[in-house]
Design goal:
This protein is an alpha+beta fold and 257 residues long. The chain has one domain: Distorted Sandwich (Glucose Permease (Domain IIA)), CATH 2.70.70. The protein has four helices and nine strands. Strands 1, 2, 3, 4, 5, 6, 7, 8 and 9 form a nine-stranded antiparallel β-sheet that branches. 34% of the residues are buried. The mean pLDDT is 93. The structure holds zinc ion.
């Protein structure tokens, strides 16, 4: 081998070693973050006002991009009808008339602020949700007809992002026991609140119609006597770097019951 060939070989080996090092660093950097844990920390900080609103707004796109990358490893059905979130019930169980209590812009309940903004956390205003009321006159969270708990199910294929459990009466937290879900095709985040039992775990994949938990009376207002036992279901659409309330009433109209 002449000197030129030896130099060429050494040069090639150096390039190969460098490329391998870059590859190692890049893969290990992506492994260092857990998108679901990052979402949970973020959502908790927003809920509790532990993160400045402007900082939270700035952080959201990276959190959502990570979640989308993670979710793309799994398959989510396209173009499927939603499943009605409370089996055994239909549109007539939705509070109000023709979904008119979906009001992201009103002063609602104990909220001191008008209008819904995800970044207001537990102090948010508005009611960007539909309440699905069950038959529970004695408020024991059991269906009066069956004497059994009432399940809530995923309306579409979803990745479970986070849950809050262990809510205690008297807590100022308005959602009570909740589940946050995500669908990357729809670019939507689903929020099921006031649950009794939460039966899913973060990171779990749910097919449309799979059980998330049971309807309860957890949450600051939901536990009070004047509140009928209901599921509070909110859907946020990720658009223009924001999580915006999405009115899904017409989708529920066409949903599978
Ligand atoms: Zn509600």
């Amino acid at each position: 081998m002449n000197q030129r060939a030896i130099l060429k070989t050494i040069f090639f080996l150096i390039i190969l070693a460098y490329a391998s090092l870059l590859y190692y660093i890049s893969t290990h950097r992506t492994l260092k973050t857990n998108p679901i844990e990052d979402w949970q920390k973020f959502e908790l900080a927003v809920r509790d006002g532990a993160i400045d609103k402007a900082a939270a707004k700035k952080a959201l796109p990276a959190i959502m991009a990570q979640l989308e990358t993670l979710a793309r490893h799994y398959s989510f059905a396209y173009g499927q009808n939603w499943i009605f979130p409370v089996p055994g019930y239909d549109l007539s169980a939705i509070a109000g008339k023709n979904g008119n209590l979906y009001r992201p812009d009103i002063v609602y309940g104990s909220s001191p602020v008008k209008g819904y903004d995800f970044f207001d956390g537990n102090n948010h205003g508005g009611h960007p949700a539909h309440d699905i009321i069950i038959r529970d006159t004695d408020q024991d969270c059991l269906d009066d007809r069956t004497n059994k708990p009432v399940a809530v199910v995923a309306v579409a294929d979803c990745l479970v992002l986070g849950t809050h459990t262990g809510w205690q009466p008297g807590s100022p937290l308005r959602g009570g026991n909740v589940a946050w879900l995500y669908n990357p095709n729809l670019q939507m985040v689903f929020y099921y609140a006031h649950l009794d039992k939460v039966m899913v775990k973060p990171g779990q994949l749910l097919k449309a119609g799979e059980v998330i938990g049971t309807i309860g009376r957890t949450g600051f207002s939901a536990e009070k006597k004047d509140s009928p036992t209901h599921l509070h279901l909110m859907v946020l659409q990720y658009q223009d770097n924001q999580l915006k309330p999405f009115n899904f009433y017409t989708i529920l109209k066409d949903s599978t019951k």
